[in-house]
Structure of Type II asparaginase:
Amino acid sequence: MMKKTLTVLSLSLGLLLPLSTFAKNNVVVVATGGTIAGAGASSTNSATYTAAKVPVDDLLKAVPQIQNLANVTGVQALQVASESITDKELLTIARKVNELVKKPDVNGVVITHGTDTLEETAYFLSLTVHTDKPIVVVGSMRPPSALSADGPLNLYSAVALAAADNAKAKGVFVLMNDDIFAARDVTKTINIHTNGFASQWGALGTLVEGKTYWFRNVAKRFNNASEFNIENIQGDALPLVQIVYGSGNMLPDAYKAYAKAGAKAIIHAGTGNGSVAKNIVPTLNELQKQGVQIIRSSRVPQGFVLRNAEQPDDQYNWVVAHDLNPQKAKLLAALALTKTRDAKEIQRMFWEY
Ligand code: ASP
């Protein structure tokens, strides 16, 4: 039964039971696969295993303590390793979460996810799901079969966060290794240790023994303040956006090939301040004139790309990705392209999200 119904019931019956007996929120765990649902051949295989094996019911049963935090139920949305997530899977997750947050008896949602593209799904949800209910994306760096597996505590903390009333209207979170990160600026920084995630702007808070401790808020637009709406996206594909990685001695061929393949925007993961090599500039300008948006991000993990600094963006009609890394810039560009083809309008979105 729902929290509010029970509270009313206990009051109207004049029961002297503590309200905390009934005060549990309802949290749904949407399982999508990843290492948190992986299985290795032995307990010493902390890095060699197959992702996406364990079904959601077993994940929940392995951490019975979560039922003390909330009334937790599970849904198996997907069972994949997250490097294989395409627009189709991304939209499946977003539609599922959108459907759940609309239910009055759901107070929070946890998504168990592979860590490779966890940051992308989290950012996409923050852009497309209109809600103030906590949405938490969680993974693990070791499979459940390994010694000192990190998944169970991460799941426990994720449920605690999704059930926390003080987590409402703060955005979509990534919970890893006790840290509460904002979806927009968290990124996977280490591919082998349990402290695999970080944000250049720091964590929003930390979660210890099922309790939240907050330190900052997100300054950009998300969830209810987002102009993007999952319900306006038809079919299983977003406008095609691809990334080209900058390096010395580059050839322009990759940009041309992606444009030929139908890319509507190309994220240039440039060196330094999103810089573009001299021999690449004419190709990017040619593609821009053909209607392909050129968006300058950086291969440098920290800082942000300054408009009109290394390149005359106003003159070329290019966009800068601000502090979004290339993979997040790719998602914002795809959503932006569902609304406009105007580079100035796309630039506005990159400042605001
Ligand atoms: N390749 C895995 C995945 O992203 C890694 C992980 O979950 O940690 O699904």
